[in-house]
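Usage

Read records sequentially. Each one opens with the input sequence:
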Amino acid sequence: SDSDGRPFRNIGFETTKAPDYRRSNELQLQYDDHDRWSAIGGVYYENNDLGMSAARGMISAPIPVDLVLLDETSTKSWAPFLQTSYRLWSQLTLTLGFRRTYDERDALLGTNVRFGGVGPDMVLVPLTPVETKSEANSWNITLDNKFTPNLLGYIAVRRGYKGGGFTSSSLAIDPDSITYEPEFVTSHEAGLKAQF
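and closes with the structure output:
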């Protein structure tokens, strides 16, 4: 029996993570003339390596059958960026921001079948090397006005980006659908910020 006291196992995931490596660094340069103009620029870098296996219960009885998803992933990303603000008039300020992101993801993905909850595993999909690369621009345009020391109004248009990647859960069903494309969004925002 399992955690609910029944003789059949729950269908779910058991995840095991191998030692992972994560590092991120950011270099910034800032400028402020203490009058109208300020700016910040730099470079962001990220490097992640992660190994993982996830066992998903497919059949509970009479013999447990698990689908074991294997995933060893490496992610590298770096992005130069620049944002500058300029006071156009009195309390009216224009802010412009730009970022160029380069993403690279590599992985070894595979799927095994495990009988009886132990092993040995039967290879369903051999370890398959997968790679995705993407690059994109994201930006920000904001116009704000400080009506009083405690009230700020603003309008903004922003372009966002999320890099593509892959998922091991599709391997056992359709090996051609492992990867997915980058995602983009353009948002429009207006509002007030107040302090009480």
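Summary fields computed downstream for this record:
- Residues 108 and 129 are 5 Å apart (CA to CA).
- The radius of gyration is 25 Å.
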